[in-house]
Amino acid sequence: MPFLINFIPPEYRANTRLKISILLILTVNFGVLLYSIGISLLFWKLDFQYGIVVAAGAIVASLLFFVLTRFNKSILLNGFYFTFCSLAIFTSISLGTGGIHSPFLPWFLTIPASIFFYIKGKYALPWVFITVGCLIVLTMSSLLGITITKPLPDNVLVYLRIINFTIMTYLLVRVVHSFRFSYRYVNKKLNKAVEKLEETNDDLQNFAYIASHDLQTPLKSINSTIKALKIHHKNNNHQPDMVETQCLDFIENNTSRLSNLVEEILNYSRAGQHESNLEMVDLNEIMEEVRQQVTATGQYPNFILKSVQLPTVVTDRTMIFQIFQNIIENGLKYNDNKHPSIFIDLAPDMKFDHITVTDNGIGIKPEDQDKIFGMFSRVGETQKYKGTGIGLAICKRIMDESGGKIWLTSALGEGSVFHIEIPKQKQSKTMSNPKNTNTGNKIEAKKVN
To answer: Inter-axis angle of helices 154-235 and 105-119, to 10 degrees?
Structure first.
């Protein structure tokens, strides 16, 4: 019924779901109006004065609802008015046409409820209380034999019951149709949003790669130029003064930092975006690879990396290596001890392989612990250490994408404990043979009892 759209306030027509909900109420109200006109003529022919009065009230209430919907901006108030009028009208008719056995009873049990549950579930609560009250009135009138007016003949009630159920079935079909239309519309919009998001992610991936490549090239050229200039000075026995040396070192250090930052941003954009290549990964091997990489850098000659016997898990090898690498290197970097140490342990958990990584570093204040996984987030005393502030953000993104969890507990000056939860798979198993125990720049693996 397209003409009913004219009764919807213009500001609500842009919201498809709200527009459909209001249109559905108007449709039912229009049905009540036509039905009230029909039964008023029927009751007039049967000389049923009580029914004529109630039907006339229904006609007035329905017409007033059209006016309220068009000019009153409160959808909730309009809905309550419609519900109250519907229940009042159908209760009155039920009392005059058979009480609890009235053919009109299904109307007020289904129509207002369907409308309100369709708009918002919590708005149905007042309707529930009013309905219970109406049912109590109808039940008591039947049990106590209270007659408001002389009931209609049984043959008339049979015909009314058939007409009522037919119209109610039609209206319920319209409600279901509106549900389906709304669902299809929302699903279509969701699919378009997902497609658009995928296209945007692809564009961002391409942009990150191109930006990284285009930025890395001039940075490498600058570094190469500085190194060539230093070699030229050396070959010509030229001794640059202190200012010149500081300027060259400053340019070289900052270009290296910028190059690392660009590389980290690219790593962050890639984190968790590619399809996971799940395989059986022995975390003890991951620890050994990280140890070898840290040792090769030569930055922490006295570091200690210890670990209990770790399980074999089903995960993406590249991503899990990146997580442990970032956490372990952070524990060594933000550390003022002569012997920075990392200890890796297992915590009991039924649903996850729960791994803890404990360091003896500088620690983090409690109020900064939620910020540490943010992009470019370097809080507290960490500002005086070299770093980009992206490593832990990459770890968080990878774990979120894989369905795992990562968080930390820490106290300033007492080190930090990182918690990593890897979802357990049916294929997961714990390795049974412990590796040799070593200290210093080795992994200490112990059998977990």
So the answer is: 10
Residue 335 Rama label (left phi>0; alpha psi -120 to 50; beta): beta
* Class of the CATH-defined domain 278-444: alpha beta
Beta strands in 58-119 (DSSP E): none
Residue 369 DSSP class: T
Confirm if 372 and 394 have CB atoms less than 8 A apart. no
In sign, the C-alpha dihedral spanning 44, 49, 51, 54 is positive
Residue extents of the structural domains in the chain? 2-152, 198-270, 278-444
pLDDT (tens digit, 0 to 9) for every residue of the chain, 449 residues total? 678 888 887 877 777 777 777 887 788 788 888 888 888 888 888 888 888 888 898 899 889 888 888 887 777 777 778 777 877 777 787 777 777 777 777 776 666 666 666 666 666 667 777 777 877 877 777 777 666 667 677 787 787 778 777 877 776 676 677 667 767 777 787 888 888 887 777 776 676 666 666 677 777 778 788 888 878 777 777 777 777 777 877 787 777 767 766 766 666 666 555 556 778 889 999 889 888 888 888 888 888 888 899 888 888 887 888 888 888 888 888 888 888 889 999 887 777 888 999 998 888 887 777 777 776 566 655 556 665 667 777 788 778 877 788 888 888 888 889 898 888 765 444 433 434 333 344 434 333 33
- How many whole angstroms separate alpha carbon 285 and alpha carbon 281? 8
Buried b or exposed e, range 94-108, using 16+ CB within 10 angstroms: bbbbbbeebbbbbbb
In total, the chain counts a number of residues equal to 449
- The rounded radius of gyration (Å) of the Cα atoms in the chain is 37
DSSP state of 316: E
Instruction: Say how many Å lie between the first and final Cα of the chain, rounded.
Output: 74
Q: Position 204: which residue type?
A: L
Burial of 379 (0-12, 13-18, 19+ CB in 10 A): middle
* Chain centroid offset of residue 327 CA: 27
- Tokens of residue 394, six digits: 């990459």
Mode of pairing for the β-strands spanning 304-307 and 443-444: parallel
Residue 262 CA to residue 264 CA, distance in Å, equals 5
Is the separation of the CB atoms in 99 and 61 below 8 Å?
A: no
